[in-house]
Every structure is written in C-alpha cells, then in structure tokens.
Amino acid sequence: MKPSFGQTRSDIRRNHALLTPESHEWITQPDWPGAELAFLISPDMGAKFAMALVRTSDGLSGIAPAAEGVARFIFVLEGRVSASTGQTLEAEGYALLPPDDTAKLTAPAATRFVLFEWRFLPRGELPEPIFGSVSEIDGTPLRGDDWLMVQKMLPTDAGFDGEFNIMNFHPGASLAYVETHFMEHGLLMLDGGGVYRLDNEWYPVGAGDAIWMGPHVPQWFGALGRTPSRYLIYKNYNRSPLAQR
C-alpha cells in the first residue's frame, strides 16, 4: 500500500538510514546504458561504500568495469546477469569483481540486481573474481542459534576486506543482543519482515526495504510474522578501524 500524500517511511539520520521503495529515485547514468539505478546509500550520507538497485528496461549491454581501485559485488534479484568472462548469474546468484577486474556485464530486459561498490583495501595479492549462488551455500547457526542461520558468500581469509551474508530468521527469532561496532552495514530485506532497532529508533521493515548502519550505531533485529525473514547484508571486515578507505 502506498503511503499517504507527502508521506514516506524513509528516514535519514546522522548515523543510520531506512530507505523504503516509495521514495526511490530512479535515474540513468552514462556508464549504464539500458539501465535505471536507485542509489540508496552513498558517501554523501556518511557511508564509505555505495549501494544501488539496478533495473533494466531494454536490456543492459557491455557495462564497463568499475573505476580504478573500486570493487563491485552484485546480487541478482530477478532475471539474469552475464559477465564477458563467460559466467551467467540467475536469481540469487552473486559475483565479487575485485579492483581492476576487466569483466563487462550484460543483462536482458526485466532484470533487477543489487550493486555494491567500495574502495578496496588490499592486503597482499588481490583476490580472484568469485561467482556463486545462495542455493549452493550451507547455513551456519549464529552463535549456536538454529533459528538464525547465516550463509556466507565470500571466503573469510584476510585477502578480503568485507563480508556479504544472507541472514535467515525463523519467525520469532532475533539477534542475540544489541550490537555496536566500528564496521558499517548495507542491508536489503529479501523476504518476511520484523523490527529493526537503529540507535534509539524502532523501524518496522519488510521485503524491499534497505538500511544503512554507520559505525558504532546500536543495532538489533527481531523477525515477526508467520513466515521466515531474510536479508542480504554487507560489512567491511578484516581491516583495522585505522585503515584508510
């Protein structure tokens, strides 16, 4: 249901934000022919990464690699995305394209995916590109709670400067405590819903909602309803808080 005239659930604060579908601004970009993008999170709001939703109308052809030093992660919501290196991602497929990767992306009409970009902090040699699918990843209970399963999409070794996970909540499950840490997050609700606490605000959230959590913001989620809840979440990882991005 659309909000009343002049209303939105989106809420932008100093150290966090809720970005809801009724407030998305879809734009075109010269480097993305055939696509529209809604940038939900960017450095202009205080984040050290960018997160966008991408949708294609006439099809996406030959998107150039990211700028020098910038890594990309994509997660397909609908349709398919192909890389010039031969891999094709269907719904819930994902790819990490490290800095200086030369792959170009294409997608047919009616494709939707999430795009993350950030300035990669190398430690030793850059990792190789990674292509995968959520369906191929086993879940692991978070802190022994089998009502809260985590699917890790990237290796955890020190060559990677971030994590991308799918969090799976049984109805009624929640994070074990209110977290505060120097890492920041970008999040997209995939299924179900619940309540997210950010700082001293409590936000009802559902599929399609996105969240930015800045460094040190108190954060907690509890799943509500009769169906499982899932979200995709990014955080910077494996690097000191003094590291420069």
From TrEMBL:
Catalytic activity, EC: 3.5.3.26
Annotated source species: Sagittula marina
Name listed for the protein in its UniProt record: (S)-ureidoglycine aminohydrolase
Domain Cupin type-2: 166-232
InterPro entries: Cupin_2, RmlC-like_jellyroll, RmlC_Cupin_sf, UGHY, UGlyAH_cupin_C
NCBIfam families: ura-cupin
Sorted UniProt keywords: Hydrolase
Molecular function terms from GO: ureidoglycine aminohydrolase activity
Record-linked Pfam families: Cupin_2 (PF07883)
